[in-house]
Design goal:
Blueprint (H helix, E strand, L loop, with lengths): L4 H16 L3 H13 L1 H24 L2 H6 L1 H26 L13 H13 L2 H10 L11 H34 L3 H24 L3
Length: about 210
């Protein structure tokens, strides 16, 4: 077995705690779920977890090291991510001032929501660097292929994130559904979401390796 049972329990426990800790991904899911409902949060979550597959693969084949050593690559990718978040912020503020109800707002398709989650995740180079620092701590060269171990650890982390983000989607979606019955509460939700997206964009743009 590539991963021993003690390492398995330790890693899953750490992954669940990390997924629960406030960060760009779970705040993004929280805001989207409150704004547009639990189904939206779940499809965004699936996109985010697909993005984590990309980061896991990058670490397993060593590509993530590029973002750790190349300031240009890191800066370009984080600026793309920040720009996308600012676009989402503009959309939220625009919806907040339009006065339309939840039923009248243009809805993204499930595929569109899924892609939004992927873009949000893969344009954050800090996740690759985090995986590069975090996953190898639980790998043991004596237990066989390191690449296989890193992939398995990445999949366990993704399952943990899927569980946590899914619960966030359901709980936040129910609260958002209740608040959306009020036009003023809907506007406030949009503005809160816009502020959150803008804050995440600023945080990402100012982040360092």
């Amino acid at each position: 077995m590539p991963i021993d049972i003690n390492t398995f329990y330790l890693f899953v426990g750490a992954s669940l705690l990390l997924a629960l800790a406030p960060g760009p991904d779970n705040i993004f899911v929280l805001a989207q779920s409150m704004l547009r409902g639990p189904a939206v949060g779940l499809f965004v979550t699936l996109g985010l977890c697909t993005g984590l597959l990309v980061h896991t693969s990058a670490v397993a084949i060593g590509v993530a090291a590029i973002f750790q050593t190349s300031a240009l690559a890191f800066t370009l990718l984080k600026l793309v991510g920040a720009g996308y978040l600012l676009y989402l912020s503009w959309q939220a503020f625009r919806a907040g001032s339009s006065g339309v109800g939840a039923a009248d707002r243009p809805q993204l398709s499930h595929w569109g929501l899924y892609k939004r989650g992927i873009i949000m995740n893969i344009t954050n180079p800090k996740i690759s660097i985090f995986f590069l620092a975090f996953l190898p701590q639980f790998a043991d060269p004596a237990r066989g292929s390191l690449s296989l171990q890193l992939i398995l650890l990445g999949l366990l982390f993704i399952l943990s994130a899927l569980l946590v983000f899914g619960l966030i989607s359901l709980m936040a979606g129910q609260l958002g559904s209740w608040l959306n019955r009020s036009a003023s509460a809907e506007k406030i939700l949009n503005r809160i979401a816009g502020t959150v997206f803008a804050g995440l964009a600023l945080k990402l743009a100012l982040s360092e390796r």
